[in-house]
Amino acid sequence: MLLLKHLKVRILTVVLFLCVLLISAVVPAEAYTDPGSGLLLWQLIVSGFVGCIAFRFRKIVHFIFKRGHKQEDK
Fold this sequence. Notes:
By secondary structure, the protein is mainly alpha-helical. The chain has two helices and no strands. It has a domain at 39-68. It is flat and about 60 Å long.
């Protein structure tokens, strides 16, 4: 179990290092991005947040209403 945790930490460290390395590499962009791409990105972010909230809200409502019902022992 300790080895698995150590491996996860190593992988996370490598991934973070690569992300920082890629972000810090400045290369001039020679491509065209249409305005619809930004809208698509916003739609992805907002739908992700709304989906997470809806999923959690459903679990909370299910917990509240299930808690009120008493199960009979037979």
